[in-house]
Task: structure prediction
Amino acid sequence: MNPIPLGIYRHYKGNDYEVIGFAKHSETQEDMVVYKALYGERGTWVRPLSMWENPIEVGGTTVKRFAYVGANGDSDRRHELREALRAINSTISKCEKAQLKLTEGTPQHTLTKRRLEAFYIATALIEKEMRESEI
Result:
C-alpha cells in the first residue's frame, strides 16, 4: 500500500511534479518519495516522505508543500491545459502590473490592453475545455 497516492502534485511555488514511486533509504530505512519534474529538464528526484507531507508556513499561512492534483491516469492533455493556464495567469498578472505604469492612449498601453484581452479569452477557453472534459 502506498503512503500517498501516485499522481500529479503541485509544489507550493507552482511547479508540477509526478510521484512515480517510493523507496527506502539504504542506511536509515526512511521512506522516500520518487518523483519527476513536469517542467524544464524533467529530472527525477527523491525526497523523504516526511518532508513531502509536512505542511509549511508561507507568508503567515500554513500550506501543503505538495498538493495532490490528480491521478497518473490524468491525461497529458489536461496537464498541458493546466500548465498553459498557469503560464497565462502568470503573464496576465505581469501585464496588469505593467499596464498600471503606462500612460493611457500610448501605443504601449494599447498593446498591453489588447494582449490582456487576448489572454482573458484564452483563459476562458481553456477553463471551458477543462470543465467539459470532466463530464
The chain has three helices and seven strands.
